[in-house]
Amino acid sequence: MENLPLHFESVFTVDCIIFGFDEGELKILLIERNEDPFKGWFALPGYFVENTESIESAAERILYESTGLKGIYMEQFHTFGALGRHPQGRVITVAYYAMIRLTNQKDLKPVTNNLAKQAVWMPVKDMPELAFDHSRIFRKGFEKIRNKISYQPIAFELLPEKFTLTQLQHLYEVILNKKLDKRNFRKKMLAYDILKELDEKQKGVSYRAAKLYKFDKRKYAKHFNKELSFSKD
Amino acid sequence: MENLPLHFESVFTVDCIIFGFDEGELKILLIERNEDPFKGWFALPGYFVENTESIESAAERILYESTGLKGIYMEQFHTFGALGRHPQGRVITVAYYAMIRLTNQKDLKPVTNNLAKQAVWMPVKDMPELAFDHSRIFRKGFEKIRNKISYQPIAFELLPEKFTLTQLQHLYEVILNKKLDKRNFRKKMLAYDILKELDEKQKGVSYRAAKLYKFDKRKYAKHFNKELSFSKD
DNA sequence: TTACTTAGTGTAAAAAATACACGTATATTA
DNA sequence: TAATATACGTGTATTTTTTACACTAAGTAA
Lengths: 233, 233
Hints:
Chain A has 233 residues and is α+β, with helices and mostly antiparallel strands. Chain A has two domains: 6-149, Nucleoside Triphosphate Pyrophosphohydrolase (Alpha-Beta Complex), CATH 3.90.79; 161-224, Arc Repressor Mutant, subunit A. Helices cover 25% and strands 28% of the residues of chain A. The first copy, chain A, contains five helices and ten strands. Chain A has helices at residues 55-67, 134-149, 165-176, 182-191, 217-224; strands spanning 9-22, 25-33, 42-43, 46-48, 74-80, 91-99, 116-123, 162-163, 195-201, 211-215. In chain A, the strands form two sheets. In chain A, strands 1, 2, 3, 4, 5, 6 and 7 form a seven-stranded mixed beta sheet that branches. The first copy, chain A, has a three-stranded antiparallel beta sheet with strand order 8-10-9. The longest helix of chain A is centred in the middle third of the chain and has 16 residues, at 134-149. At the A-B interface, strand 1, strand 5 and strand 6 of A face strand 1, strand 5 and strand 6 of B. The structure holds a DNA duplex (30 and 30 nucleotides).
């Protein structure tokens, strides 16, 4: 640390768009701020990055502290550093998105701490205006995902481990905000060859039960030449 | 600036991959470092971001200081913040790429200053190992471009203002690193409807001269719903 | 005028995306 | 146990996009 010109230092943070899918709705995790500035406003979960951790570690830590979850698909999508985005001074923010499985929502206890009065799962369609420039960050991240999902199936982490093709289609429809054709959707999804058909059917529905499928990471990696995991910076 | 927890400050910089296309080769601008660490190594042009400028401004400034050019297509593509990427301490780097027109290369005087002994246009195919983790940054940026160009025509800034379709095809071939079919390439490129055919032919060739075309920003914006310019963070 | 070099062009085949409808299985209820 | 209601699961024809492929035309140079 001897030669670095320290007068160039800036405060910087990680903010996270944490997506969940519950009751047929796409939701994101927001905290309600308990401190000025923007006291009482909703904001993306975020935190300062320590000088002893990588940015990914910081993002993982925030995800963990916000949801108690680890090992989640997470992707850095943009860094925001406009002047004036924080009223108290220059702050650089690296933004990530993550997708998590909301089925055991009971296990997920959104944080309450001195900064956050409460944390809530907010349906994307009901999003209020957020603190700082977080609305803008959200829009940019959401657009990225919408874009990406069109050519790369990345949404499985949002579903329960076992899911039906109809559930998967509903998820796509919510993210893309349009109706999809059932037969074409299934054809295309199966053609990706990344799903494993199970010998099991869904339970507890009052109509013909659908087959369950699992996401197959091995096949995914084979076809998309990518691991579904953190990238190392 | 009153309440920000300053002990979270980090040093951070912008690095730039500046592409040029010259003599049928894709090149990037590198500086040869004149200072430790990595004295004598080649590195991406980069600099510290001041607390009084946005990240984009810093990137523009670096581009200007490295090449004397302004108003160039530039895109942020990733932020690198691994521990240990700088031997003297924690440094966060926001990476951009830019594409510039190398035809008036005489006007471009790569910087010489105390940090940089010299600046050179290095053919991508001859890239040496770079200082810090710059090789990795370069690979990531190059991959992004290669990816993007496949579905969005962004390479015009590399060509002279007026160019032939064959020149454009050569550029694509160099970036994608594969031969393309002439008829299919032209068909597809013209179908984008972003080129303006000029009433003019190339000069000074010892064979049949080809028609010249111009990139049409208006049409581009119309089709891709995007301005070819800086985004404001 | 001839030789040389690149420009410029079309069509057929294959692959991918889209549009579209009905019989089947299961649970519920009358 | 029969009727009803609900979502399941499937195939084909059409259109669009992508790919493969080769020759004549124009201009320069000798």
